[in-house]
Amino acid sequence: MSHDTYEFLKVTSADGVGWIEYNRPPINTFNHAMLHEMRAALDALIADEATRVVVIASALEKHFSAGAELQLFEGIGREGMRDWAEYCHGIVRVLRGSPKPFLAAIHGLAVGGGLEMTFHCDLRFAADDARIGSPEVNINYLPPIAGTQALARLMGRSRALDYLFRGELISAEEARDAGLVDFVCPPGKLRDEVGAYAAMLATKPPEALAAIRRCVIDGGARSFDEGLALELEHVSDLAATRNFEEGVRAFLERRAPVWGRSADNET
């Protein structure tokens, strides 16, 4: 399935895997329209029952993202920036609150807001030619797409502070060592490796994927006992689904399970 209503994104979905690819040549700078398209694409693929997992990537050969178009910030003022950041935070909440897994395929130059959206994906794959950075400090700014909060959780306090204080580009290998990237591969294999992982996820039962996300993302931000309580609710809810019955039955019968849709799975 191809979505043709976007000017600055390439949005497709096939075999359970949706792709949102930044597509604003020459370097994928974000303007208001592209930001609004991103929110619309996220909403559409999350709502699409046939899409089980979503990948954020770039359709350009050498650039993943160059961040916001800085001309937008001339004279923006406090209230204008607050509106921009609140809209960005809304996108973050969609990403982190999604029942579907999100992956990122990062290559080339990857900085600013387009990169920061990937901080809220579940796993990040990077080509070994990627140059990654959050240089906002150099214009007396900080990453507004919940970058500070995501980085503190991904990298740890000290590494996040050093990364943001410096505002420098780092290699894909350095990003992996710092916890910012999970997998590094040759540029020519990036799409295939991400696609293979996404295809694997698309075969998993959707309720379990959603529950795992909630327990790790939400539970990880709570106290241990609160996380246990959240896990208890989800494990109990999963046991009441037809897909759980199917999983147990298929295991006992030594066959592949046939998963149903999330909406049809309450017993």
Which key features would you list for this structure?
alpha/beta; 46% helix; 267 residues; globular; 12 strands; seven-stranded mixed beta sheet; 2-enoyl-CoA Hydratase, Chain A, domain 1
Task: Predict the CATH topology of the largest domain.
Answer: 2-enoyl-CoA Hydratase, Chain A, domain 1
Mean pLDDT: 95
* CATH superfamily descriptor of the largest domain: 2-enoyl-CoA Hydratase, Chain A, domain 1
The CATH architecture of the largest domain is Alpha-Beta Complex
What is the total domain count?
2
- Unreliable stretches: none
Main pleated-sheet profile: 7 strands, mixed
Structure report:
The relative contact order is 0.11. It is globular, with a radius of gyration of 19 Å. Helix 1 packs parallel to helix 2. The protein folds into two domains: 2-202, Alpha-Beta Complex (2-enoyl-CoA Hydratase, Chain A, domain 1), CATH 3.90.226; 206-264, Lyase 2-enoyl-coa Hydratase, Chain  A, domain 2. Helix content is 46%, strand content 18%. The model has no long low-confidence stretch (mean pLDDT 95). Strand 1 (2-3) and strand 2 form a beta hairpin. A seven-stranded mixed β-sheet has the order 1-2-3-5-7-9-12, with helices on both faces. Strands 4-6-8-10-11 form a five-stranded mixed β-sheet. By secondary structure, the chain is an alpha/beta fold. It has ten helices and twelve strands.
